Amino acid sequence: MVTVMRTRIVNCQIFDPATGGDAFPGWVEFENGVITAVGKGQAPAPSAGAEITDIDGQGFTLAPSFVDMYANFCEPGYEYRETVASGSRAAASGGYTAVCLRPDTDPIIQRSDVVRFLLERGVFANMVDIFPIGALSMNMEGQTMAEIGEMAAAGARLVGEGNTFVKRTGFLRRCMEYAGNFGLVVMLTNEDPSLAEGPCHEGFMSTSRGLKCTPVQAEEIAVARHIALAELTGTPTHLVKISSAAGVRLIRDARARGINITASVSIHNLALNEDANAGYDAMTKVWPPLRAEEDRLALLAALEDGTIDIVVSDHDPHVIEGKEVEFDLATVGASSIELTFGVLNTLVERGELKFATVIRALATAPRKIMHLDGGVISAGMPADLVLLDRKAVRKVCGAELVSQGVNTPFDGTDLAGCPVMTFRRGRMTFAA
Amino acid sequence: MENPNTLNHLLALEGLSKETVTSILDHAVGFKEVSKRRIKKVPPLRGVTVVLFFIENSTRTRISFEVAAKRLSADTLNFSASTSSLSKGETLLDTAKNLMAMQPDIIVMRHFAPGAAKFLSERIPAGIVNAGDGPHAHPTQALLDMYTMRERKGRLEGLEVAIVGDIAHSRVARSNIHGLLTMGAKVRLAGPRTMLPTMIDRFPVSVHDRIEPAIEGADVVMMLRIQKERMGKDLFPSDREYARVFGLDSQKLKLAKPDCLVMHPGPMNRGVEITPEVADSTQSVILEQVENGVAVRMAVLFMVARHLGVSEE
User: Fold this and answer.
1) What is the C-alpha radius of gyration for chain A, rounded to an integer number of angstroms?
2) Given A21, A39, A272, B286, which is the most exposed site by the fewest CB atoms within 10 A?
């Protein structure tokens, strides 16, 4: 008789986005990385011959694990900030099983060898699936097309220029057309650099504090351009990190017209507004700018109604030296991948978001955009799962993050909710 | 509870109470007299070390603080960017910590980055006096401006003060807006729209496209320095045009009250934002501003020292 090794998570609340309803009490069984059974209520006694490990999920909610479409693990080139190994550990502790990585490493992700290197580093770390985002142009200079086809052959599914704006619209058009040949999704950030004068939102706060700033129109112009190019090329286009009500308006209109675009927002723009910069704390220096409260409310509404599909961590770890300086001179970005759920669930607790929206934004929608399996809890699906404590309140301490980065604007604040266990194809990658 | 007779730091006028501002100005009245004595020195800051930490170039503000400190018998130490290790790549915080090893009591600081004075005040155990942090704040300038207005007009409450020029890049304008509003004055702003920052009208001030309506019936006209390096780029086309449209000449000044004061934080561009005729007129109090600057800075240094418990009464 062959002994079967199975794991069950029992006594938990199961939140399956496919059913669309509320969480129900039940259990999930998986074997060899695949979900084998899902049941309501009390789990049955194990059948004879099966060796089953039961994990007690009492008080916790089980959901599909998270996928981050925009993070920086800084490798190769900036390993003093983060590595694929350290970033993957941080991601697993944030409930993630897949992470897409920005191309602006050194060397830049612009050839198949760097794509293969990152995929191998991901396999070696064995915590999350790594999806390198290939650059559109060589050296991200917007002049010569990168070897997009080679990168696709090596395993890239996404291309984009990171936080860099492709200046020549005609060149971007050709890159998008070409990427479309290989079934890739083009990811574009949205800020016209000629309108951008600084890292803060142009508004009353920047005026009163004398901070360099950028108006929302810098995003509005870029979003309009990218929508027009998505329409022209037909290539699936993902607008990364929308920050303004104006951007939301354009996207809502474009989607109503059937243009093939999707969009994301970073946790910083959902949870914080321009007032976070008022004390000149370099930890709050992120990009896109933290905008007015009305922009933040528009982003929350857009996430609820699906105009914005997903939330990205925009994880960007920095060494403390880059942050313990004057605001003007500080590095841009925050280490955030392990805080994403806590930040969003805190918004749920405040009544600003629905829990179902959070799971859709972190688990279901990104898989749909990337054509990945999973995102539902049913037999035959990959056992990519996260067990969540939705009530535990913990105080964020930047210095104690799993990530190498210690820079977070949430340092010292209380977040409601955190992942307690993460499973990637049935293997436990994180336990609190 | 804020004690109006002491200052833990002076980072900005925003948030400072009317009582504290009044107290600074009242203290300055007493200190102004010191500069008129034959022996221009009083002892309250004996043994107190004041560092003049100037990361951004300044001559008059630094000298004014230095004279103020010396007339209070403090020891002064000059530290400027061109001679400092900051030009060798040391961070602001490391440089400041090195300074602290020499046990200064007060650091007077000028820096190009907004928030820099606040940044240091949160990290080192000295009294910080902000002598200008980028476009954010220049509190002692606004205090000396208000001192000059109060001395000449006998009050601040209800005064109509026009501030004209590059509001967007001006720490002087921002500090004066906060200070004057706290003291009950009325503030009018004017300048080319390229130099009026977003949402400036959220402050309870009036904002004008042209200089004429701003100075009409004003008690005080404060002209801001135009930075010539901005000329011909994107903020204004030429100094000739600026002088004609936004500069203060004797013709425009007739719109103001007959006894209107003309002020300028210096250094002036004669013939650009202000004509020589107006700058040298009897209505001009520009040199009084400089003189009052010493008295106001003496008051500020004294009140910071008193908070630190190192002053002699």
Assistant:
1) 21
2) A21
Same domain for B61 and B166, yes or no, is no
Q: Which two tokens stand for residue A405?
A: 């980065």
Residues of B in contact with A211 (CB under 8 A): 114-115, 136
ipTM here: 0.91
Tell me, yes or no, whether B240 and B150 share the same domain. Answer: yes
- The CB-side HSE value for B146 (13 A sphere, CA atoms) comes to 35
Contact B91 A215 (CB under 8 A): no
Of all residues in chain B, the one with the smallest CA distance to A203 is: B198
Q: Kindly state whether residues B106 and B179 are assigned to the same domain.
A: no
**Residue A131 to residue A120: CA distance in whole angstroms:** 11
A394/chain B closest Cα distance in angstroms: 25
Q: Is residue B12 part of a domain?
A: no
Contact A415, A343 (CB under 8 A): yes
What is the pairing mode between strands A427-431 and A414-424?
antiparallel
Position B11 in a domain: no
Torsion sign over Cα A175, A178, A180, A183: negative
Distance between A221 CA and the closest CA of chain B, angstroms? 19
Going from N- to C-terminal start, the domains of chain A cover 4-62+381-394+416-431, 64-370
Asked if B158 and B123 sit in the same domain, the reply is no
Question: Looking at beta carbons, which residues of chain A come within 8 Å of B92?
Answer: 325-326
Task: Please give the model's pTM, rounded to 2 decimal places.
Answer: 0.94
Token pair of A56 as six digits: 């007690």
Which CATH code fits A4-62+381-394+416-431?
2.30.40.10
Cα gap A310→A380, rounded to integer Å: 25
Q: A162: left (phi > 0), else alpha (psi -120 to 50), else beta?
A: left
User: Same domain for B265 and B172?
Assistant: yes
Could you give the residue numbers annotated as active site of B?
Answer: 60-61, 88, 110, 138
Domain count, chain B: 2
- The chain A residues in contact with chain B (CB within 8 A) are 202-204, 206-211, 213, 215, 279-280, 321, 324-329
Contact A323, A368 (CB under 8 A): no
| Closest C-alpha among A350, A265, A260 to residue A305 | A265
Q: Give every CB contact of residue B251 below 8 A, 6+ residues apart in sequence.
A: none
Same domain, B61 and B129: yes
Which homologous superfamily is A64-370 in? Metal-dependent hydrolases (3.20.20.140)
Q: Note the pLDDT tens digit of each residue in B175-206.
A: 999 999 999 999 999 999 999 999 999 999 99
Q: A194-224, pLDDT tens digit by residue?
A: 999 999 999 999 999 999 999 999 999 999 9
Domain that holds residue B235: 139-289
